[in-house]
Amino acid sequence: MRTLCSGFAESTRPELCDQGFEDKCLEDNEGSLTCARDATGNGMTGCQVTAETPFFACVCPAGAKLVGEKCEVTNGCVAAIFDTPACACDRCVCTDSGLGKIDCHEEPPSACVSDAEHPGGCWRIGKHSACVDQIDQKKQTGIAGGDPATVQASSCKCPAGFVGDGLTCVDVDECQTSCKGEHMRCANTFGSFTCTCDSGFGKMDDASSSDGMTCLHGGSGGGFGIGTVFVAVLASCAVLGGGGYLIYRVRLRSYMNQEIKAIMSQYMPLEDGENNGDGHFAAPNGHEDSDGDEESNRL
Question: Cα–Cα distance between 198 and 184 in angstroms, integer?
Fold first, then answer.
């Protein structure tokens, strides 16, 4: 209606335009009440003013979009962390109000990376710290529709190799439960441990072992490593490959001999004699035909 009325000059404006325009989507007006009832059940409870009768249309409410034939509630933060620069930084946190409005802000640097004696109020000795940055939890809370402000900036949890409440942490002696395989030795270190093999045994990786390794006898000369095993495997492959090649050569030569004999029998048939099996052929008269006999006949 506003569009139509704007096309008239003041002197020619219809009386209807001078009476003012009623926003059908205002609260308790026709459009607002009609859409709120959601008579079609498609979730289009939002009202939008139009320039055509009845001057309103039912649409998906803020924070929702039309998927197929129905409106589905969406979280603006899901797209904002990729599409909106103010929401896409490493420490940016997004809050979705559920009404199609989002708020993004950048959290301050983590207390866990400070040089304080007790970062975030947590235990710390040297490179070992119990301070845990919770920026990822804040981000996930916002994407899930919650309030990131309810998540603390950091928490205290003893790192691997230590036990305690995060305010105080004590080193764990892993040797009490680790390196229990045969011929293994364990050395506990601050926050960790190392497993080695007794003298004369070599360490080999073993995924089936709880320690991830196995100690195998390496002879009187001491332990052996993965290089020794590799050389042994390579030598075995060489022996097997050489044997296989020798068998192949023998079988190939036998096959070729058979093929040559078959070809000769086709192009040089022995019509008058038979093979005695010793390389000589018997003549039709029962005597062996040889180069010596032929020479005698000539004489």
Answer: 6
Euclidean distance between CA atoms 205 and 101, whole angstroms: 55
Residue 297 domain flag: no
Residue 123's pLDDT is: 96
Same-domain check for residues 128 and 161:
yes
d(CA 120, CA 156): 8
For residue 61, say if its preceding peptide bond is cis, omega within 30 degrees of 0. no
3-state secondary structure of 31: helix
- Domain hosting residue 264, numbered range: 225-268
- State the Cα–Cα distance between residues 269 and 266, nearest whole angstrom: 6
Contact 220, 230 (CB under 8 A): no
Q: What pLDDT was estimated at residue 16?
A: 53
Instruction: Determine which helix (DSSP H) or strand (DSSP E) holds 34, and give its type and residue range.
Output: helix 30-37
Quickly list DSSP for 208-265.
TSTTSEEEEE--TT----HHHHHHHHHHHHHHHHHHHHHHHHHHHHHHHHHHHHHHHH
Exposed, middle or buried: residue 136 (CB in 10 Å: 0-12, 13-18, 19+)? exposed
* pLDDT confidence of residue 118: 93
In the chain, what percentage of residues exceed pLDDT 70? 72
Contact 154, 167 (CB under 8 A): no
DSSP-derived letter for residue 110 is P
Residue 236 lies in a domain: yes
Distance CA 122, CA 149 (A): 21
What is the pTM assigned to this prediction? 0.48
Tokens (6 digits) for 106: 């950048």
